[in-house]
Structure formats: structure tokens, C-alpha cells
Amino acid sequence: MPINQPSNQIKLTNVSLVRMKKGKKRYEIACYKNKVLEWRSGVEKDLDNVLQIPNVFLSVSKGQAAPHQDLAKSFGAKTPMDDIILEILNKGELQVGEKERHAQLERIHNEVIDIVAGKLVDPTTKRVYTTGMIDKALDQLSSQIQTQQAEAKADAAAASRDPAAKTADDATATEGKGKAKELPKWTGVVTTKSAKSQALDAMKALIAHQPIPVSRARMRLRITCPTPILKQSVKAPPKAGGESADGEEKAHGTVKDRILTYVEEVEKQEVAGDEWEVTGFVEPGAYKALTEFIGSHTKGRGRAEVLDMAVVHEDD
């Protein structure tokens, strides 16, 4: 007896789904694994290498194609199928498997650790830490946050059983509110944010909590300015990052005085003709304020050139 099989059934294997809700309907397209991210990053430019089948579905798993009437209502009657597919591919939500998600998380984690390790140094020796030490320090911060969250839940549960204790805790919390600024937290890497953004968060948490002694690696700059401008007086107070013990005196000093308040360590200072040049080290957090000051007080005639984004001492 012959076995009848549906001739129009499409077997999709090794598939990644991209879903998008539009006009109260959810649409799906079937793509090859790893190709969607390559398409969105610009690495892959051939659409045929991304799509398993050039069609839009209501359910890929059931093989249920989206009716033309639904597509017309959601995307417009005159919108070509290729444009609909591209909109879903570019703006839709990528559904990935557990292994693929784990690989993506591991990749971002490694990127974050590499960025942080290249930007932070031991404040005493100015030497970089190994990626392993940075990884352990971030794990320590993450564990501390998890412990604090667990304790908070336990306290909340205990308070719900003891209203009097809850009232006392609320009074204590209210009394301490505003006295202490909450420090940056680190709870671990996620796949929904860029590695660069998460690396900045990780650095802020490490600097705030100091599980190991760390500080931002200083920038090395070359600052140039016409000598006549250097002698102009500045009455505005120093901006954040440029304050010092003699801030009041510096506040009423010259343009040169103000520029030097931003430079932590002067490497070289000289005058060539009618131009003054200083090379030195600046904290990254003070760079924006420094460039804004130079731009506003020299009318574009002065400049700050970055020679090294992060100065570190490498082990021999």
C-alpha cells in the first residue's frame, strides 16, 4: 500500500525565526542560523543566504503562510513582498535556540572583559590587570548583588509576617534616604545591550566598589594654544574634574592656569614662536570639560589632541 505524503510540505531545519507584530497580527520569516546577525551588521549582503524560504508566515512551525489580505492590511496593499520581508528581517525580534543564545552571551562577555581590562589599571603601578582578574572581580560584584537581593527578599518576607518590624524598617529607610548615594551595580552580562555600553557599566561598578584596586587609565594629550590667549583672565570656577585645593585662586587665574588644572601630570611644556604646547596626562572623565573649555575660551584657535586613549605600563 503506497504512503501518501503532502507534496507541498516544506521541511525547515536548522532554522532561526524572526518575528514581528504588525496590525494585530504576528508574522514570521524562516532564516538560517547566525545569518540574521551577519545581515544586520552588514557582513552578509546576499538575502538568499539569509532566508530559508522567501515567504512570510503566520506560523513557520505549522507551515502556515500569511494570507495576502492580512499582509495588505498590515503593511499596505501596494507594499511588495520583498519589502515586507526586509522590514521583518531588519526590525523583527530574533528567536534563537539555547546553544546559540549561550554562544552569543559568551561572546559579549569576552568583549566586555577585554574592553574593561584595557581601560583600567592598578592606581599604584599603572599596570593593567589580566582578563582573568577582571573577570573574577566582576563575578565578586555580581555575587554580592545577588546576595543583597536575596537578603532583601528575606527581609520583605519577614516584614510581611511582622508588621511592627516593617514599620521600623520603613522608618530607618526613610531616615537614611538622601544621605547616601546609591553606588553603581553590576549584575552580569546580558545580550540586549552592546558590549561597549556594558563595559562602561562594569568599569563604574569596579571603581565604585573596589573589589581590587582600580582606576581609569589616563589619557595622554597634546594641548596647543596661542600664547596671547593664555594670558587672558578667567573668572568662572573650575569645572568638575579640574578642582584643586587652591581652586579659588585658579578660578580667577588665566586660561593657562585653567588648562593646567585639568592636566594631572605634565610631561613636557614649551613655547615655540607664538604657540604654547603642553603634553601630559588627563583623567578620561575630565576630557570633555577640558575640550569644552578650550573651545569656548580660544574660539577654535586652541586644540587638544589625543596621543593615547589609555596609558598603561606593560609587564616586561
Automatic annotation (TrEMBL):
Compartment(s) where it occurs, according to its Swiss-Prot or TrEMBL record: Cytoplasm; Nucleus
Domain Ribosome maturation protein SDO1/SBDS C-terminal: 244-309
Keywords: Cytoplasm, Nucleus, Ribosome biogenesis
Spans annotated as Disordered: 152-180, 232-253
Similarity annotation: Belongs to the SDO1/SBDS family.
GO cellular component: cytoplasm; nucleus
InterPro entries: Ribosome_mat_SBDS_N_sf, Sdo1/SBDS, Sdo1/SBDS-like, SDO1/SBDS_C, SDO1/SBDS_central, Sdo1/SBDS_central_sf, SDO1/SBDS_N
Domain of life: Eukaryota
A GO biological process held by the record: cytosolic ribosome assembly
PANTHER family per record: RIBOSOME MATURATION PROTEIN SBDS (PTHR10927)
Signal sequence range: none
SUPFAM superfamilies: FYSH domain, Hypothetical protein AF0491, middle domain
Domain Ribosome maturation protein SDO1/SBDS central intervals: 110-217
Keyword RNA-binding appears in the UniProt entry: no
Segments forming domain Ribosome maturation protein SDO1/SBDS N-terminal: 14-101
Quaternary structure and interacting proteins, as annotated: Associates with the 60S ribosomal subunit.
NCBIfam families in UniProt: RNA_SBDS (TIGR00291)
UniProt name for this protein: Ribosome maturation protein SDO1
